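Exercise (ungraded).
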Amino acid sequence: MSALVNLVDVSKHYAGATALHSTNLSVERGKTTVLIGPSGCGKSTLLRLIIRLIEPDSGSIEFDDELITSDIIGTLRRRIGYVIQEGGLFPHLTARANVLLMARHVGKPEDKMQNRLAELCELTRFPVNLLSRYPVELSGGQRQRVGLMRALMLSPELLLLDEPLGALDPLVRASLQKDLKEIFARLQQTVLFVTHDLAEAAYFGDEIVLMNEGRIVQRGPVSDLRDQPTDPFVSEFINAQRGVTLT
Amino acid sequence: MKFVRTALAGRDRSEPDGHLGRRGWPDGPSLPFLLLFAAVVSTHANPVIIGSKKFTESYVLGEISQRALNDAGVAAEHRQGMGGTIILWQALQGGQIDGYPEYTGTIGQEILKNDRQLSSQEIRDALGKFGVCMTEPLGFNNTYALVMRRSEAQRLAIRTISDLRKHPELRIGLTHEFLDRQDGWQPLRERYGLPQQSVIGIDHALGYAALANGSIDVKDAYSTDAKIEQNDLVVLEDDLQFFPKYEAVFLFRSSMSPDAINALRRLEGTLNEKRMIHLNMEAERTKNYTSAANLYFQDNGRSASFAGESFPHKLARWTLRHLELAGFSLLLSVIIGIPLGIVASRGGLIGHAILGFASVVQTIPSLALLALLVPLPFFGISVRTAIAALFLYGLLPIVRNTASGLQDIPRSLRESAVALGLSPFTRLWQIYLPMASRSILSGIKTSAVINVGTATLAALIGAGGLGEPILSGLNLNDHVTILQGAIPAALLALLVQWFFDVLDRVLIPKGLRI
């Protein structure tokens, strides 16, 4: 089976600085690929290029064997879920309205929407009675669950997560990590996950892509990165986060 | 374009003879707006519009002419106290008014810009080129004069203007118009060689108060001014015959109907100085120009059935007009300001240009903005001009708050909306605008409060509203009349503030208020 997303020679420059050098990457179906690296290494840029929040300067990105262009990105975005830190919830809408926003926009039947909503609450362990609350009335973890429900509402083929757990305290973070991993497994979801935390990457990643200064340095299982580093930077990065139990 | 103004103004002047007892209460604010639009297609006959300058005698003459026209079966309106000579003359030329009372000296010096005294035929010929005619004199000469307190004049033995040369310490307060006129202060000072250094500009009515309390010693006046008798002042003799003759006449557009012209001409030679002073005094005593004007008809042996408009009725009329001015201009500011704010929020050259324009407009003093709009062909002396000026004033807070409200939305949330796949319109309508609603509403509230305050200036160009009593109160130096406008205007501003506080709760989404 071919990869769901294929990046070929994709690069991105900002005035005077290169955010991403010419890069190739494929995201395998049904797997969780984790992008990791220090701040400014280009991992978020890569994610944002796929969902077309920014345009690449060169190269091409294919989604499900289809070239992503600005003409079709509108419909493609409905097949991709995107979750950011804090959930990116709209403060003027209730949790329910946030989750249903896109389904309503594309005119899904009301009964189907409600069924899907109940399903998602169960999946993400979000209490149904909190659906009528506004984002400010929810805890950080709850907000993140709502953000996840919103991303999953239209059953996307690809889920993009940009440091989704970055702003949570360690206990909430641990419980959400566990829930997320279960959800991905249950849905056999293709996931591209951005984090700067090696333990988190190791926990989620079927495959880990380590980036530095706009380049992919090494990709593979976490044990490869630890035991067969291809570059001094890999060891440096791993050692910097030592003390973390690597499984 | 006169019909638009007429339709707007028509509500409170719909009955030609001005009987107020039979007139119903105003019926809600929506009608005026409908009228504005309806007026564009309406073609009913326009009433004759008489203007007047901003002083008692001009008001009274305006009222007299309106009554005379109405009695002759010609529908007429009187736009009270529109401003000074130049504004009235421009309005007459532009057709915003059909006639107004003027003085021969002013016509020669100020309008025709002629240094020497013109004969009445020379004046007529010159006016004819503008399509303007002049009646014969109404019967009195209201020339300029310098006046002093009687006690002071006697103490210093000042009888003539030449006598002022001996007292350089005297303080002089002059109306702004007199200071600037070609037949005003500068040539007068040169002719008489007056040495006084302390010369200030002061409103005509306030000047009398200043004279009474000793802040100034000499001021300009009109020789038929009722205040001369009332305040025990003396007129200094113009011993060098500096001041030209100022015989009162009516100027009118030659295109006016023959019936209307005949009605005005019947006023010729019917008012001598004594009667005019009497009418002026009555107007200042009763604060009611209409009833003073009616005395003219009483004395002429006609029946005067007019009873003064009751205060609650006047207040309702002023307030309603005030709300029309502020409300309609605010509506325009909102309709145009929010889209401009949306464009401006995107920044770039256009965004900066929009914000820059709105800011520049805001820095123009409101009085100057009105004065700038009046000479433009589409505007003139009208409600429309007042609304346009208020609209421009209301623009900046709305544009700026819309732009900043939108710009303050965190980038992560904007990107979330994009990444979800919402269309640009849906993003704006369902996400961005609601999120910016608090900022936008507070901009609208600021505009509304500014507009309610600034709308009092609309009276300067005859657009009415609560500025009308403030202006005539200032003119009559009557504090009660000023307060009749000032207090309701202040209350209205508070009410508007409160109304928007309530509106906040209705319009700002709950999630943003917790």
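Further reading is listed at the end of the chapter. For now, observe: The two ends of chain B are 50 Å apart (CA to CA). The first helix of chain B runs from residue 2 to 9.
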